[in-house]
Amino acid sequence: MKSNPITTIMTKNIVSVSSEQSILDVKHIYEKKDFHHHIPVVENGKLVGMVSLIDFMYNIAGAGIDDDNKIYSELKVKDIMTKKPYYLNTNATIEDVAGVLAKGRYHAVPIVEEENIKGIVSTADIIQFFLKNGL
């Protein structure tokens, strides 16, 4: 089962943003219940960056929850995103992604095919897979 393609467990309905969007949009995404902590930044279907909850929180320090705080209208996604994010291709296996996430440097891995984002896999997705399958 660990050798199954990552496409079998990845989240395919991706919530993404563009680099020109306001970080207020990012705030609203993070306010939704049960949302993963990583948002792909996509331009014309291509992955160009990632915004993590840590990136977001670091850049809004002290802004609070009021949407009218000027930081939310001044900063764009491109100002806080990680450019050239790490990713794997759709031919990666569950074990491949588990190995990357186990190293602790990343907590989510975008999955791409021919430069177009197809999904994302988080540490939580991998843990749920292993628990569900008794591995």
Report on the architecture of this protein:
With 135 residues, this protein is α+β, with helices and mostly antiparallel strands. The chain has one domain: CBS-domain (Roll), CATH 3.10.580.10. It contains 6 helices and 6 strands, in the order αββαααββαββα. The strands form 2 sheets. Strands 1-2-3 form a 3-stranded antiparallel β-sheet. Strands 4-5-6 form a 3-stranded mixed β-sheet. The longest helix has 10 residues. The radius of gyration is 16 Å and the shape is globular. The model has no long low-confidence stretch (mean pLDDT 91).
Write out key terms for the chains shown.
135 residues; three-stranded antiparallel sheet; alpha+beta; three-stranded mixed sheet; CBS-domain
Task: Describe the structure concisely for a colleague.
The protein is of the alpha+beta class.
Give the total of beta strands: 6
Q: Which fold name fills CATH's third level, the topology?
A: CBS-domain
Gyration radius from CA atoms, angstroms: 16 Å
**How many H/I helical runs?**
6
Oligomeric organization of the protein chains: single chain
The CATH architecture can be given as: Roll
- The parts where pLDDT drops under 50 for at least 5 residues are none
Largest sheet: 3 strands, antiparallel
> What fraction of residues sit in β-strands?
15-25%
